[in-house]
Amino acid sequence: MPGRRIVVAQSSVLGNSISPVFIERANALREGGIRIPTSSSLIGVGIAEIMAASLLDHTHQALKESPANVTAAMDNLMAGLAKLKQDCEPAAWENAIAYCRRHPVAQLILDDPFTRRSFRKPRGYPGDAVLIDYIYSGDCRLSEAESVSEIGQRIFEYNRDTPACKAVRARRDVVRDVIDWLCERVARPSILSVACGHLREAWMAQAVRAGRAGRFIGLDQDEMSIEVVRHELGPLGVIPVCNSIKALFRGALADETFDLVYSTGLYDYLDDRLATKLTERLYRMLNPGGKLIVANFLPGIEGAGYMEAFMDWKLIYRTREQMLALAASLPAHCVQINSFVEENKNILFMEISRI
Predict the structure, then answer these.
(1) pTM, two decimal places
(2) Which of 58, 157, 214, 260 could form a disulfide with 188 if both were Cys (CB 3.0 to 4.6 A apart)?
(3) Cα(170)–Cα(156) distance, rounded to whole angstroms?
């Protein structure tokens, strides 16, 4: 595949070196994922650290020189980490991650409150609802009492504009549209959102704001997220439930059925065994004609290396075939399964209809 060549001026990253840095990248780097040819053999620990050192030194110098270098420096960093993650043996990649976090560039990158929150995990887990609100809102001071530096703001703006973050916003909008579509076709439909976070898609759905949804339950194990749902969406009739997915197998929710069940930010953290078991359970919670929608990031997203190295945010990526395999045990005679990707081609949706 022909690539786009990024040329970083030698004064930006190499000081008095003779040659500029050329980094070959695929045309699709900021348009839905990188496409880097697979190497013939995997890189070991020693070579991985040398490669990481070169990449990080260049990035550090560029960011120190001027905040104006953020876009070029982050482009190169994203591409370099993606290549390194792809080409390394697992142990070598883990070693490279540790090296990234020791390198002085990490302190500059952690000026971005989005990256910093993910890395520090104030709620004890990655991808919390406040972190997702950073992606939605575009406000880099969303939950930070301290000021944000110019370079931190620019890195934040860069990260929010990556295909993965665009895909998260598209994911929200897909579910919003499904809710509105359902409420036009079913009188006061019952809806369950699993691992609902702040349930922003419901707030945006015209049908919910107009009171046309029926029993709408938002389930999440994070008490602080549920409190936001209670405060903002309780007046619109949404019922917040603070519990883990165990509540779906036993407890108050176990015997309920719904016209729509969806979970769009959970499967990326579930292994195949648990994801399959949950899919089976959620399907059994559907009314006849009901729909189950689950989403998962696809392999090969642009920012996976950066997310793991600097955000300590690891996902389980799945292909279409791997997603469909999660539903393989469902009764074929009364199931219709469709799949589609959002516009950025980073997130796959699986739609299961009970017929």
Answers:
(1) 0.88
(2) 214
(3) 19
